[in-house]
Design brief:
- The complex is a heterodimer of chains A (about 350) and B (about 600).
- Chain A is an alpha/beta fold.
- Chain A is built from seven helices and 32 strands.
- Chain A has two domains: about 200 residues, Spore Coat Polysaccharide Biosynthesis Protein SpsA, Chain A (Alpha-Beta Complex), CATH 3.90.550; about 160 residues, UDP N-Acetylglucosamine Acyltransferase, domain 1.
- In chain A, the strands form seven sheets. In chain A, strands 14, 16, 17, 19, 21, 23, 24, 26, 27 and 30 form a ten-stranded parallel β-sheet that branches. A seven-stranded mixed β-sheet of chain A has the order 5-4-1-6-11-8-12, with helices on both faces.
- Chain B folds into three domains: about 250 residues, Aminohydrolase, N-terminal nucleophile (Ntn) domain (Glutamine Phosphoribosylpyrophosphate, subunit 1, domain 1); about 170 residues, Glucose-6-phosphate isomerase like protein, domain 1 (Rossmann fold, 3-Layer(aba) Sandwich), CATH 3.40.50.10490; about 150 residues, Rossmann fold (3-Layer(aba) Sandwich), CATH 3.40.50.
- Chain B has 18 helices and 25 strands.
- An eight-stranded antiparallel β-sheet of chain B has the order 3-2-4-1-10-9-11-15.
- In chain B, a hairpin with a 3-residue loop joins β9 and β10.
- Classes of the chains: A alpha/beta (about 350), B alpha/beta (about 600).
């Protein structure tokens, strides 16, 4: 079966970051968001993928590091409906797997979708997730007579963003879902699932992805100082350098060729991606530092996202509360620094700051 | 639901019986009240079948010693017609040369059976399935070749089916499919055909999913399929399963428990219609209950909570009802004037069996309510009543509890002389509750971080508070205690401190009193939650469900307490389907 992956959204919840980088190309734990999706699809037996993109097509192509045949299609018609129609032209089969490229879920999410399809004797399967307020990205569904009904309100079950549907003619994808729902199956997904829409989703994703880790996984090729302290739930990739007296308390991820300077503390669900540099005497918690970003010495990052190749000066302090994120129960949110941006030395940056 | 399997091998495979049994074990989630296997070697066709669980029947009938190159297997879940040795599949024709296993329902079997009997066919069982081998036999007698005879038999039946048939002397398994699943597995010198993929997945990942209208046969090295009279190109439909399909039987759900909670609307509906079709038994039960001086309700665990609810309903009507935890049976002496209502999902619960024997010896009349037709407890009873929730795999009872509540309300309504048709809406009430799954998840995840919780209720809410606490204990391993809300000030409130979680169950009666209890808890800075029907308690977090007919409140509340426990267990990383230290059927004392 082929899959159609949508990666042409505007990423409004992550602006101005997404003006420079497509949301699906953001890296978490060494893998772009879209690669997390493709990894799951591959595990679920998908043989080929069509990815619908916008002007950031090249970023998406470069971000894929999963071994699965794919082709990209530039979106021409508008909206999600247009994206599906443009991508569907490249799907030869009667039925296909449609998924959004901005979901982080376990491979079992896609495997269960396939299992439900294959055992269910049905042309369409919808995945649903239980949600609380403010989490209604893809629309809601009610269950009526063992079938789902697509609704605008009055349910806490949301469409989970991955479906198997038959090809068809439609002018509105949600209307099409409504049309096929009477002969569709559904299942409720209760495992890990995050739809990346806002900065807090990225921060939450690190926590969700690292929460299963029981032991540290440390590459033989990493260069770890004898005086460094490594905690119990830490992943350290090839050629990362952990300098003298630094503490990787974890849970944390340190990517390939990343550098953690002397006396720095990396703790509580932080992800330092490949080739990023953290200077000396820094503290990083609940933060995502993208590839090749640089953090000056004596800085403090909390609930913060630093974009690819961005530069944070020395002695920069981020403040995470009082904040009012759109999603999640954590009332904390620090800064969102877009790729290639710079933050000058010695600044104190308030919550919800975006550059 | 039933599970069927066919295995055919080129070689004289000694282990074919073992393989068939292993496939059957993986199909056990589709039913487990009777089992049967047919094997064929050359011109020898042998059938061994019996009522009971797979492992037990396999041992008792020594099924592993069967030999042959063609095997059929069947695991059954009876909904009507008791699961006994004769009704177990495979079924055979008059000459014992055609064996058939079937999953589905044949609507026109009575007419077909009459026709066949008038032609001289002798039937052994009460099942609808048995018409198939006789039909094949009849068409063959009229000169048709085997495949034509099989197709003609299939064309004669109406209803839903996945059917497998073997005929003496032929190294083939014939099959047909409509509305029930059937999948072919292509192995090495060995082919499979089964109700699902996981059953044969250890042997092959090359599969062909049959579609409605497909009819054909498999041999050890050939697959032949027709649909609407046209030959199907088999190669086009073969798929390789490269992913882990072991979870396929959960139909997409991560756990059986969540799947089974979502099956509750259907389970309740099937239970009610089952009781309506068994209305004579229900009337007999009511007569016994009404005529007895005391009604003793015995049950254990979740079933006890259903029994307690029923007791409260009847006590309010002036009946003398005593709910008894089955293992505490020795505290009560019954006599001929008492009636006993024994409630057990499995119908095999040891404690209930022991209590039942004792009370029966005292001359008390026994009524049973079980989810397994003709279960051990049912056989001990004067009147057998059934919930029809279908097989439940998750150890923590969910849809079976909801079905017990439905069955007991049905009884209660008839005792009161009320119209029971309001229960037809129970399924819709459950479905509407399931729309609150997101909120239940939120509460469950908050509870998962705690080490203690209170579940409080008053009146009819109390059994549901107790069930809520039990679910949390069973699968979250969080200490939860339920008690009557009015008891707080007599002791338990001493434990309450800042953020201590207290969950109120509010079926919509005694709301003012419950609101006072909420204030008591809030004054001690407890974190208060409520699952309320129609009227709010104003707790810190509250799920408010609305129900037109308050008698249906239990169906609104039950899915929510189950979902809260489920999500709290998942958040803790526990497997809710297999809680530690617990077994589905407790057959030990």
């Amino acid at each position: 079966m082929k899959a159609l992956v949508l990666a042409a959204g505007k990423g409004e919840g992550l602006r101005p970051y997404t003006e420079k980088e497509q949301k699906e190309a953001i890296t978490i734990l060494g893998k772009a968001v879209i690669s997390h999706v493709l990894y799951g699809l591959k595990k679920a037996g998908i043989e080929e993928v069509v990815i619908v993109t916008n002007e950031h097509e090249k970023q998406i192509q470069d971000a894929i590091n999963v071994d699965i045949p794919f082709e990209t299609v530039r979106q021409k018609r508008p909206g999600i409906t247009g994206a599906v129609l443009d991508g569907m032209d490249k799907i030869p089969d009667d039925e296909f797997l449609l998924t959004f490229g901005d979901i982080i879920a376990e491979p079992e999410f896609y495997m269960n979708l396939m299992n439900s399809y294959i055992t269910g004797n049905s042309k369409a399967v919808f995945s649903l997730v239980p949600v609380s307020e403010g989490m209604q990205t893809y629309g809601l569904a009610k269950i009526v007579d063992n079938r789902i009904e697509i609704v605008n309100e009055g349910s806490t079950l949301a469409l989970a963003g991955a479906y198997i549907i038959p090809k068809g003619d439609f002018t509105d994808i949600l209307e099409y879902f409504k049309k096929i729902s009477p002969f569709s199956r559904y299942f409720i997904w209760s495992g890990k699932w995050i739809d990346i829409g806002y900065p807090e989703d990225l921060i939450n994703a690190i926590e969700v992805l690292l929460s299963d880790l029981n032991n540290s996984i440390i590459s033989d090729k990493a260069e770890i100082s004898k005086t460094a302290v490594i905690g119990k739930k830490v992943i350290i990739e090839d050629n990362a350098i952990i300098d003298d007296y630094s503490v990787i308390k974890g849970p944390a991820y340190i990517g390939k060729n990343a550098y953690i300077g002397n006396y720095s503390l990396i703790r509580d669900y932080s992800s330092i991606e490949s080739e990023a540099k953290i200077g000396a005497y820094c503290e990083v918690a609940h933060s995502l530092v993208e590839p090749r970003a640089e953090i000056g010495s004596k800085s403090y990052l909390t609930y913060t996202i630093v974009g690819r190749e961005a530069k944070i000066g020395a002695s920069v302090v981020t403040v995470s509360y009082p904040a009012n994120p759109v999603r999640g129960r954590e009332r904390k949110l620090g800064a969102l620094i877009s790729p290639n941006e710079e933050v000058y030395h010695g600044q104190i940056i308030g919550p919800n700051y975006r550059k | 639901m039933c599970g069927i399997i066919g295995v055919i091998s080129k070689n004289d495979e000694k282990k074919l019986a073992t393989i068939t049994v292993q496939c059957l074990e993986r199909l056990e989630y589709r039913g487990y009240d009777s089992v049967g296997v047919a094997s064929m070697e050359g011109n020898e066709l042998e059938v061994r079948k019996a009522k009971g669980r797979i492992d037990e029947v396999v041992k008792r009938l020594n099924i592993l010693s069967m030999t042959g190159r063609v095997f059929l297997g069947h695991t059954r879940w009876a909904t009507h017609g008791e699961p006994n040795d004769i009704n177990a599949h495979p079924h055979t024709d008059c000459t014992n040369s055609i064996a058939v296993v079937h999953n589905g329902t044949i609507k026109n079997f009575r007419e077909l059976r009459e026709d066949l009997e008038s032609l001289g066919h002798k039937f052994k069982s009460e099942t609808d399935t048995e018409v198939i081998p006789h039909l094949v036999e009849e068409f063959k007698k009229r000169g048709m070749d085997s495949f034509s005879a099989f197709k003609s038999a299939i064309n004669s039946i109406q209803g839903s089916y996945a059917v497998l048939a073997i005929i003496k002397g032929e190294n083939k398994i014939y099959f047909a499919k409509k509305d029930n699943p059937l999948i072919i597995g292509l192995g090495d010198k060995m082919n499979f055909i089964s109700s699902d993929i996981p059953s044969f997945l250890p042997y092959t990942n090359k599969v062909l999913i049959l579609i409605d209208g497909d009819v054909g046969y498999i041999t050890p090295d050939e697959i032949y399929i027709e649909n609407e009279g046209k030959k199907v190109n088999v190669l086009d439909r073969i798929k390789i399963i490269t992913w882990d399909a072991s979870a396929a039987s959960k139909e997409g759900y991560a756990h059986y428990m969540l799947k089974e909670i979502h099956e509750s609307p259907r389970a309740v509906d099937d239970t009610i219609s089952g009781l309506i079709s068994d209305i004579e038994d229900v009337k007999n039960a009511i007569k016994i209950l009404e005529e007895s001086k005391r009604i003793i309700v015995i049950a254990a665990g979740t079933s006890y909570h259903a029994g307690l609810y029923f007791s409260l309903l009847l006590q309010r009507e002036g009946f003398n009802v005593i709910p008894v935890i089955a293992s505490e049976y020795y505290n009560i002496k019954t006599n001929q004037e008492d009636s006993i209502l024994a409630i057990s999902q499995s119908g095999e619960t040891y404690d209930v069996m022991i209590a039942l024997k004792e009370f029966k010896a005292n001359g008390s009349k026994i009524i049973s309510l079980t989810n397994v037709i003709d279960s051990a407890i049912a056989r001990q009873s004067d009147v057998k009543l059934y919930t029809r929730a279908g097989p439940e795999i998750g150890v923590a009872a969910t849809k079976t509890f909801t079905s017990q509540i439905a069955a007991l309300q049905f009884l209660y309504s008839l005792i009161k002389g009320d119209d029971y048709t309001y229960l037809n809406k129970a399924k819709d009430v459950i479905r509407r509750s399931l729309d609150f799954e997101g909120e239940a998840k939120l509460i469950g995840e908050e509870l998962s971080a705690k080490s203690n919780a209170y579940y409080l209720g008053r009146g009819l809410s109390l059994p549901f508070a107790m069930e809520g606490a039990l679910k949390i204990k069973e699968i979250t391993y969080l200490h939860a205690e339920a008690y009557a809300a009015g008891e707080s000030k007599h002791g338990p409130i001493a434990l309450v401190e800042k953020d201590f979680p207290v969950v109120f169950i509010n079926l919509g009666e005694l709301v003012g009193e419950l609101q006072n209890n909420v204030q008591e808890m809030k004054a001690r800075k407890a974190k208060t939650y409520a699952i309320s029907v129609n009227e709010k308690l104003n707790t810190d977090k509250e799920i408010l469900l609305t129900v037109e007919d308050e008698r249906l409140s239990p169906f609104a509340v039950t899915p929510i307490i189950q979902l809260i426990a489920y999500y709290s267990a998942v958040k803790r990383g526990n497997d809710p389907d297999k809680p530690r230290n617990l077994a589905k059927t407790v057959t030990v004392g």
